[in-house]
Amino acid sequence: MTSNIRNPLSTLKSNLAAARAAAALLIAAGGAQAADLNALIWCDHSDPALLQPFEQANNIKVNVKEFEGTGAGLAIVEQSQPGDWDVMVIDSIDVPRGVEKGLFEPLPEDKLPFADLFPEVKMDKSTIVDGKRYGITEKFGYNTIGFNKTKVDPADMQSLASLTSDKYKGKVAIYDYYLPVIGMAALAIGKKTADLTEAELPALKAELLKMKANAKLVGEVTASQTALATGEVDILVGGGEWVTAGLAKENPALDFSIPREGAVLWSQSLAMFKDSKNKDMALKFIQYILSPEGQARLATSSCYWGMPSNTKAALTDDQKKVLRFDEQPGFLARAQAYPAPNADLDKKMQDMWTEMLQAK
Amino acid sequence: MSTTGNDRRALPWALVTPALGWTLAFFVLPFIAMGLSSLTAHEGGGFGLSNYSQFFTNPSYWQAMVNSLQVTAIVTVVSVLLAYPFAWILAEQVPERWQRLALMLAVLPFWTSYVVRSYSWLLVLAQNGVINRALTGSGLISEPLQLANTRLATVTGFVHFFVMLLTLTIFANLKQLSPSYRKAAADLGAGPVRTFLHVVLPLTLPGIMVGAFLTFVLCIGDYITPQILGGNNELLMPQLVMMQIGRRGDFPLASALSIILMAVVTVAYLACARWLKIERT
Q1: Model pLDDT for residues B143-175, shown as the tens digit of each residue
Q2: Do the domain assignments include residue B8?
Q3: Among positive and negative, which fits the CA dihedral B69, B71, B72, B77?
Q4: Residues contacting A329, CB < 8 A, separation 6+
Q5: Considering only A171-175, B8-12, B47-51, which range has the smallest mean pLDDT?
């Protein structure tokens, strides 16, 4: 066979050469972006209204990657090259997990507005390891009772016992995250969330099963929020300002209570990576997020609202009203810490949650 | 210039290299990595079968597999029962010139996002959704039925999707069937029902089995539909796998559960292999 037509092997070789060249270009382009800030975040940080002012002020691009759950976030870091990431949003109680893995850089306390934070949300027990602070709380709120005040008696929502009463059977949704809801079950049976041990698991399981028997669904953030907003359910166990505040304009009937037994305090922190190649900019980013303006934008992010940790957050009066800003001292006094089990208890709690989900 | 003997021998390899490379990079190597991961302990390291033993000793985990198999079996059977007559009508009753348009209309829902389609079903089945409003409005029921956040909702979402898939495979099979088979059966005295049961159905079994197998594989591994429509009132295997990753990042256990799920799919393939390989003569 004669060939003024190129044989396929030669074509393949030249295509491979072209692919190599294209790959080299991509790598070069990637290198050119090294000055960008790379942030592992939750969805509230991807709001352009939050990021753009920082990007414009510093002439920088903030590349964000969302993740759900600390385990998934840490897995992304482990699969990346050291220095790929600059900052991370993390559950405050999980900051020690990142520190144990040697991922985080101590934060300079003198360059951050610690004095302006609500004292109860500094979370020193989690954010300080061996005397060094690795995380700063940027946003917090409550896993408590979210409800539609036109459909339920608001007085009933002052007690966790209502969640298991026949009066609201089939009108309840449960937020699908085991730690805060187990915390609420602990409060319902009169246990402190900080003192939970394996010995409490049978009683907690019984309480969870009672909640499940009353519930129509157990849903993640979007599903549970949708269920409450559309009237599928009237009560959300584990709900709070993070569900109701963002919907306040469209649905002013949605509200939350801090019942007599208390509520579970959630908080998210910002941490800086030890291997960041852009630590100055990473610190600037953390400073921006903790600034009064950054705090207001983060608190009212389009993904979900929550309380800013900085008492000087530049919120409007209306926004403060929706977040019940002025009531925070009372709320914080009654709130209990997010359960922070060790790895073994954590596994047992998750298995207990699985049992609850499978219960008919 | 003529191609050399070496080039000729290398040509087939060159042509299959991209496919082999792709399979190696995106299936074989990740599968080996997942297998190794499934044998490690999440806490403290070390190799062993503890992740697999958890599945067999924890009733909640085992229940997830039972739930998955039940839902998948129901979805597969219902989808086949709905898709076969649908494909038959398209192939036999719709005039040839309209068949392409009819088929396109039949698979139109494929064009919408899977997630959007699931949420749309949630709105249809919700307490204030179309079905409950129609039933309460017409006075047939006084209280809304709980349709959303149930196994029924999950099955409905799945069936909507897989009926389309099965319709395509069965339709293709029916179109390949020569009319002479039916004529021969009629010549030999068989009525329409007997012809269908003894001639058409056996000859379209490959199309049914290919579609049913695809339905089984895609359904048993799906996370989105049960997560959105099932309301977490029961867990299926993909949900159990995802649960291990979220907060705790227990990839070894998630890997073990995934491999068990894959083993079930392999068993299903072996059970169907006879029909998947069948060739009509």
Answers
A1: 999 999 999 999 999 999 999 999 999 999 999
A2: no
A3: positive
A4: none
A5: B8-12
Report the alpha-carbon distance of residue B37 to residue B250 in Å, rounded: 10
Q: Are A116 and A136 spatial neighbours (Cβ–Cβ below 8 Å)?
A: no
Written as one letter, the residue type at B186 is A
- The answer to whether residues A162 and A252 belong to one domain is yes
Mutate to test the interface with A, among B34, B247, B251, B257 (most CBs of A within 10 A): B247
| Predicted pLDDT at B108 | 82
Rg (CA), chain A: 24
Of the candidates B10, B64, B245, the beta carbon closest to that of A69 is on: B245
Residue A323 is classified by DSSP as: H
Query: Which domain, by its residues, includes A236?
Result: 142-265+338-358
User: How far apart, in whole angstroms, are the C-alpha atoms of residue A351 and residue A357?
Assistant: 10
- Residues from chain B that touch A346, judged by Cβ atoms under 8 A, are 247-248
Query: Which of B22, B232, B235, B243 to mutate to test binding with chain A, by most A CBs within 10 Å of its CB?
Result: B232
Closest by CA to A46, choosing from A301, A220, A282, is: A301
What does chain A come to in residues?
360
Amino acid letter at B118? S
Q: Are strands A235-239 and A172-175 parallel, antiparallel or unpaired?
A: parallel
Q: How far is A71 from chain B (nearest CA, A)?
A: 4
pLDDT tens, residue by residue, B117-127: 998 999 899 98
Number of domains in chain A: 2
Tell me what the pLDDT averaged over chain A comes to.
Answer: 90
Cα-Cα-Cα-Cα dihedral of A96, A100, A106, A112, to 10°? -20
CB–CB contact A226 B122 (8 Å): yes
CB of B198 closer than 8 Å to CB of B91: no
CB neighbourhood size of A135 (10 A): 31
The answer to whether residue A1 scores a pLDDT higher than 80 is no
Paired sense of beta strands A37-41 and A87-91, if any:
parallel
Indicate the DSSP class of residue A107: P
The 10s digit of each residue's pLDDT in A152-196 is 999 999 999 999 999 999 999 999 999 999 999 999 999 999 999
Contact A265, A335 (CB under 8 A): yes
> A144 pairs with which residues across the strands?
A239
List chain B residues with CB under 8 Å of A358: 59-60, 63-64, 67, 234-235
Calculated CA dihedral for residues A245, A249, A253, A254, nearest 10 degrees: -20
- Residue A292 has φ and ψ, to the nearest 5°, of -55, -40
Here the CATH number for the domain that contains residue A134 is: 3.40.190.10
Same domain membership, residue A304 and residue A342: no
CB A267 within 8 A of CB A121: yes
